Task: structure prediction
Amino acid sequence: MAARSVFRSGLFNDRVAIVTGGATGIGKAITAELLHLGCRVVIASRKAERLEAAAGELSQLISPSSAASITALQCNIRQEDQVRELVASTLRLHGRIDYLVNNGGGQFSSPAANMKLKGWNAVIDTNLTGTFLCCREVYRAWMKDHGGAIVNIIADMWRGFPGMAHTGAARAAVENLTKSLAIEWASSGIRINSIAPGTIFSKTAMENYKELGPMIFQMAVPCIPAKRLGLPEEGTIFSKTAMENYKELGPMIFQMAVPCIPAKRLGFPEEISPAVCFLLSPAASFISGATLKVDAGQSLYDSVWEIPDHSSWPAPPEGENVGALRELMKKLKHKL
Ligand SMILES: CCCCC/C=C/C(=O)SCCNC(=O)CCNC(=O)[C@H](O)C(C)(C)COP(=O)(O)OP(=O)(O)OC[C@H]1O[C@@H](n2cnc3c(N)ncnc32)[C@H](O)[C@@H]1OP(=O)(O)O
Ligand SMILES: NC(=O)C1=CN([C@@H]2O[C@H](COP(=O)(O)OP(=O)(O)OC[C@H]3O[C@@H](n4cnc5c(N)ncnc54)[C@H](OP(=O)(O)O)[C@@H]3O)[C@@H](O)[C@H]2O)C=CC1
Result:
């Protein structure tokens, strides 16, 4: 991974950052750019092996004359004691914490009606409670008395998040948490902002959705007049083996988002990290409680969620306008 940055090298010399989820995807790009700018970075997530491998790889990017360093610390942000230990270890190691990037998180894709409480809780605990715990611990242990800057990575949930309702709810809550903390902690000199990425491609993000291939069958249901999948004995599509064949197609859901992105391409982690560095930097010294959408306008445009044709909606109230429309439709039908 080659780190590049539009910012002045040495901008973050002697600064210390914690980046959760800093070993993969967007987090890895953020870590690489912070290192390039001279920062001492602690990356934290659950999978120790992956953390160590990323730390080894990213340390190769640090030039011998740089003040930068990278340390991997295992931490499940859902666990209060582990978050406390992450913050304490960082302070033991570096003696300060200037920046926190709450990037660790994620979800699975599922219609809300099918979600188990355990799955709902896993996503809320990770994205909302995990972010809260990290913010609270760095505040209590360091930033309360010394100030600092925090960036929370959220998501494009502005029109809800159909198919991932749990993460939509959690990210909207983090956006609101960002505003509350911006006010509560202003007097400590803490700035806190959010970044809402559009659809960002990375190998690890893609792998998270590999089980979605079989969903392609379910997605076809609205288009089938019988409103259910056919069975093999009916000579139609659904069978276990047919489904197995589509296992590889899950990651295609990233590609399926492209028509809904005004840029007509996916975003990449290296297009999120400059926005994070900007919000951490002195260039953003008057910005707090804000959310920066980094989505090429995706949130203003189209949705991948298809609503099948239906007639389930309650009828409109009878009156002259409904009557007029009915007459018009009758006439049009007659003409056609
Ligand atoms: C396609 C375009 C997407 C655009 C937007 C993209 C956004 C992104 O965020 S991409 C980044 C993707 N990366 C990740 O999501 C990585 C982190 N994610 C996770 O670790 C998991 O998704 C997690 C948040 C659910 C946590 O997993 P884990 O720690 O393994 O949780 P548990 O084993 O405790 O499972 C709890 C519970 O959750 C339910 N569940 C988990 N996975 C699924 C699934 N694929 N389908 C349905 N339900 C799932 C399930 O109930 C689990 O419990 P059990 O029932 O006992 O298995
Ligand atoms: N890619 C996209 O299109 C978008 C991504 N996002 C968000 O951006 C962030 C980064 O995602 P991205 O890089 O794409 O995907 P990745 O799957 O590569 O990154 C998710 C990271 O979060 C870490 N993580 C997950 N759960 C925990 C936990 N309980 N404790 C500590 N770390 C955890 C993972 O590490 P480990 O498994 O080792 O714990 C992993 O490093 C996530 O919050 C994601 O939801 C938001 C909008 C769009």
Remarks:
- The longest helix spans residues 117-146.
